[in-house]
Amino acid sequence: MAVDFPLVLYDCHFEGLSWKQEAEEVNYVLSALQQHWTQSAVKSHVLHGMIKGLEASGGVSSNHCWLVEGSRQRNYRPLLERPCCESLESRIDHFVKRGRLEREEGENGGDAVHRGKRSKHSHNSSTGPVSSELPPAKQRGCRVFTKMFLVGLTGGISSGKSTVSSMLRELGCPIIDADVVARKVVEPNTPAYSRIVHHFGREILLENGEIDRQKLGELIFADGEKRKLLNSITHPEIHKAMLKEILFYFLRGYRYVVLDVPLLFETRRLTKFLNHTVVVYCDPATQLSRLMQRDGLTQEQAEQRVAAQMPLNEKRGLANHVIENSGSREDAHRQVLRLHTKLEDSMDFLLVRVIAIAATTGLSGILLYAAKILIS
């Protein structure tokens, strides 16, 4: 039987799906699964059957993983479904020994990357090799292209923005988290660190010399002028660091990059560069409840922190896309899958390609004209 590539299905591919749901819901998952894996189609009824099998065994657990393999005759069929105590690495070793996967060292000496090997009997052999990076699961989903566009993701405190960001990351989308970047640019011995200590004093420092984010947060949430001062120090450094990461993903050929920015609409410095903006919304009562529970705040403290940000209703009116996150995680997950599919099929990418082709054609014409002059 002609086999293309092994495929690993993790729990995140099944989250929020059930046997009774329509094939449309499953197809959103398939659009993410199919990007790098094979030239055979993954049929929705096959995935339905796998979901049914998972539910019959007691539902999806954090220890469950499926290995399946594809063929031109049967598309995908479950393979090597083994007890949870057997590690994923041992199952991958099985494929390596069979010559169906090649093991390579990951970037910077990191995790090993496993790439599928094409069977000599595989169909459509004229097409270039398709790579499948098995672990980690987060590196799947976004297709790889030579140009890309930017998507801004924002929300309010405790609206669930980080949850949505994690879901997109699990689909393989590159995420640039402004909060993570913000922590890096204020590390000791950086320009922003020195200016913050100069303006806010050494009492905001921990014993190890790092900035105590909780103390600094208490200062700026209580004083609007201090908040503006801090933003004027950190935002330029954050934007420079984010630009470096954007260029990194651009050179790697990703279709789109998600900029996870809490104050996206407050600062408005990045919005002019974005093709799409996404707001994670939840109703005010849910937002307060989550914040009080998460941070152990009183209602007054929580209301003060929410009031320090632009209201979610206002952000909702400024965004191109809204993820409604007042309900269950499963409902939010389905919305994220739909959003990912829309972005993957966006006309913005086609426009970028047309402009790039036109520019390349124009440059080629100029070079050809110059060459003719030199030759003559």
Q: What can you see in these coordinates?
A:
By secondary structure, the protein is α/β, with parallel strands linked by helices. The chain has four domains: 133 residues, no CATH class; 100 residues, 3-Layer(aba) Sandwich (Rossmann fold); 75 residues, Rossmann fold (3-Layer(aba) Sandwich), CATH 3.40.50.300; 28 residues. 47% of the residues lie in helices and 14% in strands. The strands form three sheets. The chain has a five-stranded parallel beta sheet, sandwiched between helices. The protein has a three-stranded antiparallel beta sheet with strand order 1-2-3, with no helix packed on it. Strands 4-5 form a two-stranded antiparallel sheet. A hairpin with an 8-residue loop joins strand 4 and strand 5. The longest helix is centred in the middle third of the chain and has 29 residues. The N terminus is likely disordered. It comes from Pleuronectes platessa. InterPro entries: Depp_CoAkinase, P-loop_NTPase. One of its GO terms (molecular function) is dephospho-CoA kinase activity. Belongs to the CoaE family. One of its GO terms (biological process) is coenzyme A biosynthetic process.
Distance between the termini: 61 Å
Count of alpha and pi helical runs: 14
Structural class category: alpha/beta
Give the strand order, joined by hyphens, for the main sheet.
7-8-6-9-10
Which word captures the global form? globular
> How many domains in all?
4
| Beta-strand proportion | 5-15%
Computed over alpha carbons, the radius of gyration is: 24 Å
Transmembrane segments: 350-371
Organism: Pleuronectes platessa
Keywords: ATP-binding, Membrane, Nucleotide-binding, Transmembrane, Transmembrane helix
GO biological process, one term: coenzyme A biosynthetic process
